[in-house]
Amino acid sequence: MSALLIGIAGGTASGKTTLAKTLKNSFQDKVAILKHDYYYYDQSHFKVADQDINFDHPDSFETDLLIKQLEKLKEKKEIARPVYSYKTNNRLAETKKVKPAPIIIVEGILIFHYQKLKELFDLKIYVDTAADIRLLRRISRDIKERDRTFNSVKKQYLSTVKPMHQKFVEPSKYQADIIIPHGGLNEIANDLIIKKIKDHLREN
Ligand SMILES: Nc1ncnc2c1ncn2[C@@H]1O[C@H](COP(=O)(O)OP(=O)(O)O)[C@@H](O)[C@H]1O
Ligand SMILES: O=c1ccn([C@@H]2O[C@H](COP(=O)(O)O)[C@@H](O)[C@H]2O)c(=O)[nH]1
Q1: pLDDT for residue 14 is more than 80
Q2: 164 lines ligand 2 (CB under 6 A)
Q3: CA distances in angstroms from 155 to 75, 104, 148, listed in the order given
Q4: Which of 14, 52, 86, 150 is the pocket-test mutation for ligand 2 (most atoms within 8 Å of CB)?
Q5: Mean of the per-residue pLDDT values for the chain?
Q6: Which has the minimum average pLDDT: 45-49, 102-106, 116-120, 159-163?
Q7: Strand, coil or helix: what is 178?
Q8: What tens digit of pLDDT does each residue of 47-73 get?
Q9: Which residues contact ligand 1 via a Cβ below 6 A?
Q10: How far is the CA of 55 from the centre of ligand 2 (A)?
Q11: Which residue has its alpha carbon closest to ligand 1 atom 16?
């Protein structure tokens, strides 16, 4: 069976992970998930103080490594993916094994920006959620899960997250096959994607 590669893009806190988890819950071991975020360069790669790193620029990710590992998974070979810490902005020494699966999901804010990566996807989904909703979600998530303060989220949002979204993320929406409104819990959209996956599993 050839793997179906699904890309899920969208702005920060749009609901990409939520959608990926819904698909994982529906298909369990048949789904492998890779986040582009796992491939952030270690902070030692950047020549600026860590509070000035632009985490929303396409050059902040080691995308070539992601492409190489996706190609391996397509060849049904296991990979050892990087592990990244949002709390310390570091790539950890450990790696995690990912087994090949019939459905491979890649999610990330910028995955449709890179031509070579984009061409690997059989289905490109963009989760479209209004900026104010995303910002509110990001504030609570980053404080709860990523050890941030309100002021640090506000500063980062205005200096890099918002301008990079407008420059790179939003334009990549038009590369998608499907644009899903209202975040990651849009049941009708989720059901359509689930049907597409079932068809692939039945036909391959
Ligand atoms: N449709 C939704 N309604 C309410 N909250 C949501 C919805 N989708 C996602 N969230 C919440 O918003 C936050 C960000 O969602 P997440 O799926 O992690 O976004 P992303 O992966 O795009 O950054 C999480 O706390 C999640 O629980
Ligand atoms: O060290 C880091 C790495 C990333 N970020 C921010 O994360 C988001 C992307 O993750 P989502 O789950 O899609 O929100 C991106 O906007 C980066 O700004 C970070 O703050 N620190």
Answers
A1: yes
A2: no
A3: 43, 35, 11
A4: 86
A5: 95
A6: 45-49
A7: strand
A8: 887 778 999 999 999 999 999 999 999
A9: 10, 12-18, 137, 141, 183-185
A10: 6
A11: 15
| 146 CA from centroid of ligand 2 (Å) | 9
Closest-CA residue, ligand 2 atom 21, reads 86
Pairing state between β 31-35 and 103-107:
parallel
185 has a pLDDT exceeding 90: no
Q: What is the CATH number of domain 4-203?
A: 3.40.50.300
Can you count the helices (H) and strands (E) in the chain?
Answer: 8, 7
Q: Which amino acid residue places its CA nearest to atom 6 of ligand 1?
A: 15
Helix 187-203 vs helix 16-27: crossing angle, to nearest 10: 40
Q: Which of 29-38, 133-142, 147-156, 180-189 has the lowest mean pLDDT?
A: 180-189
> Whose CA is closest to atom 17 on ligand 2?
55
Amino acid at 100: P
Would you list the domain boundaries of the chain?
4-203
- pLDDT at residue number 47: 82
- How large is the ipTM? 0.98
Tokens of 29: 């071991």
- Res 181: pLDDT: 92
Q: How many CB atoms lie within 10 A of CB 148?
A: 19
